[in-house]
Amino acid sequence: MKTIIVYIALAMMGLCTQFLMAQEKNIVEKVEELEQEKKEIIRSEKEALKKEVEAINEKLAKEELTIEKANGLKEEAAKNRALNIENRIAILNNKIELLKRNGSEYLTGEKDEISLRIGNGGGNDDILLDIKIKNDKNKKIKYDKRTYSNAVVAFGLNNVIVDGQSLDDSDYKIIGSRFFEIGWAWKTRVFKNSNILRIKYGISYQSNGLKPTDNRYFVENEDQTNLEEFRIELDKSKFRMENIVIPVHMELGASKAIKSSESIRYTTRHKFRIGLGGYVGANISTRQKLKYKENGERVKEKIKRDYNTSDLIYGLSAYIGFSDMSVYAKYDLSTIFKDSLVDQNNVSLGLRFDL
């Protein structure tokens, strides 16, 4: 046992010696690099001064400068370049002194590792001591991953833009007509080391509801769908289109960088943001719900049919908000009804939450 302890002590002494020698070698190599950098500074500043003097001489030859003015500019340029050399070399001299005085604490470079394994010669199963010394102070900082995902929920008021008609004269109730949207979105920052601009894209389910005014409901007459008055008093008349769409937005806004010794993370909480873009998708369902009382009985009708609605849905959308909540607006460029004599386009305004 004593023999093993002696071996371990000797090995530890050897390990420390190897480590110190490796660090000393790194210091010497770094000092040599800095000395070479000093020579490069002198060379580059002299080359820059030479070009400045040549430019002054060209202006002098073109009589754009007097001899006195040219000599003054040359003297000033030489003085500036001399000060540049002095200041830049002083910085390198300070680095050299820090390295010589403090050693590895001020080294920069790749991670070093010294490993020692002690055994009795019987293979990996007979290892008595396994020591590793690492210097990972200069571990590369990891930036935040480029893409995150989250749920999106939006809801609010819904209505229709009709050619030659204002919303004040709408055929649909302002408060009773509503929209709802739920989906999943991915957000990818455009720039590698900045989060100022992001692309937001995903897939969403949209439900656009309309409540006709004046006791009317939708009637499908061949390729035309029109509002007509119902034969008796309606308790409820509601028309709904359901869509699956792919929204894409360019999102612009500030974010906070959370920095640590190992990583940089970005967050948009408590920050303003604005998104501009659009969506494209398909109509998956159109239905109408009617409620009324007839012959003393309450009747509920749920009618699901085509109603000549557009199959392809596309439009523009935008949002502006703070943190996870935004004011949200969308406008269908596609018309509600394919062959309608008057174009009718769905429009929505409400709140959006990126959860």
Q: What is the helical fraction, as a range of percent?
A: 25-40%
Q: What characteristic shape results from the CA principal axes?
A: elongated
**Number of separate helices:** 2
Largest sheet: spatial strand order: 4-5-6-9-12-14-15-16
What is the number of independent domains?
A: 2
Number of strands: 16
Largest sheet: 8 strands, antiparallel, barrel
Q: SSE order, as H and E?
A: HHEEEEEEEEEEEEEEEE
Rg, alpha carbons: 38 Å
Strand content: over 45%
Mean pLDDT: 81
Task: Please characterize this protein's 3D structure.
The protein has 355 residues and is α+β, with helices and mostly antiparallel strands. The chain folds into 2 domains: 2-135; 142-354. The protein has helices spanning 2-61, 67-102, and strands at 112-119, 127-135, 142-143, 147-162, 178-189, 197-210, 216-221, 224-229, 234-253, 256-259, 263-267, 272-294, 297-304, 312-322, 325-332, 344-354. The protein has an 8-stranded antiparallel beta barrel with strand order 4-5-6-9-12-14-15-16. A 3-stranded mixed sheet has the order 3-11-10, with no helix packed on it. α1 (2-61) runs antiparallel to α2 (67-102). The chain is elongated. Mean pLDDT is 81; it is low at 4-12, 15-20, 107-112 and 114-118.
SSE blueprint and pairings:
Elements: H1 2-61, H2 67-102, E1 112-119, E2 127-135, E3 142-143, E4 147-162, E5 178-189, E6 197-210, E7 216-221, E8 224-229, E9 234-253, E10 256-259, E11 263-267, E12 272-294, E13 297-304, E14 312-322, E15 325-332, E16 344-354
Parallel strand pairs: 3-11
Antiparallel strand pairs: 1-2, 4-5, 4-16, 5-6, 6-9, 7-8, 9-12, 10-11, 12-13, 12-14, 14-15, 15-16
Helix pairs in contact: 1-2
